[in-house]
Amino acid sequence: MEEAARPGLSVEECVRRLKRYHYAFKRLHQIFTARITAEPIYELKMAFGLHAHYCAEHVTALRQRVGEMREPPLGLEQVPHEALEICFDEILGAPKTEELLMGVYEKALPALQAALQRHVVNTNPLADAPSIRLCRFALLEIGDMIEFGRGAVEKVVGPEKRSVFKPWLQLLDDCFAVAGGLHGAEKPAEKKLERQFSARPYQYDAVPKRDERFPDPYNMGVNAEVFLYDNKFPPEPKTLMMFYKRLREVDVPEMMASILTETPDQPWEYYRDLTRQLWDEARHAMMGEVGFVSLGIDWPEKVMINFTRSLGLITQLKSFERHAVLYFIEQGLMPKTGKRFEWEVGLASRNPLSALFQDYDWADEVLHARIGRDWYLKNFDEPKTAMHYGDQCWSRVLMHWGRWREEGLTEHRNWWPEVYRDACRHWGIQPDPDVLAFSTSYEQVRADLKTISASA
Ligand SMILES: [Fe+2]
Ligand SMILES: [Fe+2]
Predict the structure, then answer these.
(1) How far does residue 455's CA lie from ligand 1's centre (Å)?
(2) What is the CA(70)–ligand 2 centre distance, in A?
(3) Domain 224-436, what architecture?
(4) Does residue 73 have a cis peptide bond before it, meaning omega lies within 30 degrees of 0?
(5) Which of 153, 182, 335, 410 could hold 115 in an S-S bridge, CB 3.0 to 4.6 Å?
(6) Closest ligand to 330 CA?
């Protein structure tokens, strides 16, 4: 009674604050997404995918809540305070991973956390119960993100770096102070804010980068699809090829991040849906990783995960054309040779983990096909034209298999026999000579990507 009888925030003030949280989540979503492609550290790429998804979901919930309390126009696209804009511009433009991590996980997210905690305390728990529910749920995931960030900063940022970035971190603090806190409930400080990293407009780095666990990123020496669809090979070794195909999906978040970053002015639901898919694709990659680890295979050492597809799509096509290719691939995954086939191979292999992963991979793909219909297909009068356009775009992406070898970028080494041998040792069986002899690369197929790899 006592709590419920205590006056709290008016609707006006509540909405004003919610819009600030909304803005913060939206900018964080943008930052996480934009920094996936060129971030070399694999775990960070994956985490940025998850954290972008979290932020997108909270943006969606906050938009809905504001819509419950106010008539349109809701003003959700307005910048609530210039100092907040500077703060997030600065973090987006952070030149290196170190500054980025400190800005996001040590400044922005804790400020957002403090704002939401304060909302829960300040507002009337009965009158504003729906907002409190959103805040509490968001706090749960903000807590997870901050905890992850703490570990990441510890590993990535050396203590000597911290003093180098002190003035910049101070600038971020100043931004919040000038804005009266992220919530805007404090008296605004009077300070002059001078842009540093955002003095010049942000330039998206579209070239995918990988860390040292991807030592041979141009290697297209093992043709997973040829092996997978050949009936003469048994299902057990095919699970290895499926783990490889999954892990290779690191390239899908890289590529989808480029679509999201380079496609402005879409309805919010577009970004929300595509971000969910981006995170799913990151999960698929991690399923492949977990699969290899479960079989005792040292994947960074033995399995050559390439980035040739994201590199080709991003550098050779425009963002809408990339979306067209994605749609074309995902529609192709639905027929008999696609996800159902992979799941059946998983079942037949009696590797329960492979079957489980393929089961969920298939389920995710059904969602992705729906997202493709909602956001890509609507640009065409006929589904056939949309498919044809995606097909055409994909055919234009050239893979320079021979040239990369000539230039010394890769030898397209056949890494398959070694990985298969390691798995056989784990299974306690003798290698099958036919399986061991598999040596089809991606050279034999045509230069474009169309027939050579389909996983998304
Ligand atoms: Fe996928
Ligand atoms: Fe997908």
Answers:
(1) 6
(2) 37
(3) Up-down Bundle (1.20)
(4) yes
(5) 182
(6) 2
Token readout for 77 is 């696209």
pLDDT in tens, the chain (456 residues): 999 999 999 999 999 999 999 999 999 999 999 999 999 999 999 999 999 999 999 999 999 999 999 999 999 999 999 999 999 999 999 999 999 999 999 999 999 999 999 999 999 999 999 999 999 999 999 999 999 999 999 999 988 888 999 999 999 999 999 999 999 999 999 999 999 999 999 999 999 999 999 999 999 999 999 999 999 999 999 999 999 999 999 999 999 999 999 999 999 999 999 999 999 999 999 999 999 999 999 999 999 999 999 999 999 999 999 999 999 988 877 776 789 999 999 999 999 999 999 999 999 999 999 999 999 999 999 999 999 999 999 989 988 899 999 999 999 999 999 999 999 999 999 999 999 999 999 987 644 445 555 577
Long-range contacts at 369-375 (CB < 8 A, ≥ 24 apart): 369/330, 369/331, 369/333, 369/334, 371/273, 371/274, 371/276, 371/277, 372/326, 372/327, 372/330, 372/331, 374/273, 375/266, 375/270, 375/273, 375/274, 375/323
Q: How far is CA 36 from the centre of its chain?
A: 6
Residue position matching structure tokens 């079989």: 295
**405 CA → ligand 1 middle, Å:** 28
**CA 234 to ligand 2 center in whole angstroms:** 26
Fold of 11-178: Ferritin (1.20.1260)
- Domain span(s) for CATH 1.20.1260.10 in the chain: 11-178
Q: Ligand 2: distance of its center to the CA of 364 in Å?
A: 7
Give start-end residues of each CATH 1.20.910 domain in the chain.
224-436
Ligand that comes closest to the CA of residue 361: 1
Q: How far is the CA of 59 from the centre of ligand 1 (A)?
A: 24
Report the candidate in 135, 137, 133, 96 with the shortest Cα–Cα distance to residue 114.
135
The bound ligand whose nearest atom lies closest to the alpha carbon of 277 is 2
CA of residue 359 to ligand 2 center, whole Å:
13
